[in-house]
Amino acid sequence: MSEAHDQLEIRFRLNDGSDIGPKTFSSSTSVCTLKESILTQWPKGKENGPRTVKDVKLISAGKILENSRTLEECKSPICGLTGEVTTMHVVVQPPPTQGDKRSSDQLQNRCVCVIL
After folding, report:
1. What are the backbone angles phi and psi of residue 31, rounded to the nearest 5°?
2. Phi-psi bin for 9: left (phi > 0), alpha (psi -120 to 50), beta?
3. CATH class held by domain 2-108
4. CA 110 to CA 102: how far, in whole Å?
5. What phi, psi does 25 have (nearest 5°)?
6. CA-to-CA distance for 89 and 103, rounded, in angstroms?
7. 20 to 30 Å CA-CA from 102: which of 53, 80, 81, 86?
């Protein structure tokens, strides 16, 4: 019976509203391992998919989960109830490309005035 409490069923909600899972994970699973699972299960036809674990942010109960933490450490009172599926939101944020860096540098050089 304690094994059932050590297992969490998790669904990963992508930004377009589609899902990966649900899939069962042990409560000792790290957030980094969850992200690796997302990378391997990412739908092949979807654009702007993550390339590395660093491109993925997981949000559960309104909090961004840290890679080094386990599911047990991240569990919220509203998540992980026996028999329920926990939904975690997946945010993909790829690192900026060279072109993006130049445009952000240009934005920093702009002067903005606000008159109150």
Report:
1. -60, -35
2. beta
3. alpha beta
4. 13
5. -130, 150
6. 29
7. 53
DSSP 8-state class, residue 42? S
Whole-angstrom distance, CA of residue 12 vs CA of residue 107: 34
Segment 80-115, tens digit of pLDDT: 555 688 889 999 987 666 555 545 555 555 666 666
Parallel/antiparallel/unpaired status of strands 85-92 and 7-13: parallel
Query: Rounded mean pLDDT of 59-72?
Result: 90
- Token pair belonging to 70: 């386990």
Q: What ranges make up the beta strands (E) of 1-116?
A: 7-13, 19-26, 56-60, 63-64, 85-92
> Which bin fits 16, alpha (ψ -120 to 50), beta or left (φ > 0)?
alpha
Tokens at 67, concatenated: 């890679």
pLDDT at 108: 57
The residue assigned the tokens 């890679």 is: 67
pLDDT of amino acid 23: 93
Q: Are 26 and 7 in contact (CB under 8 A)?
A: yes
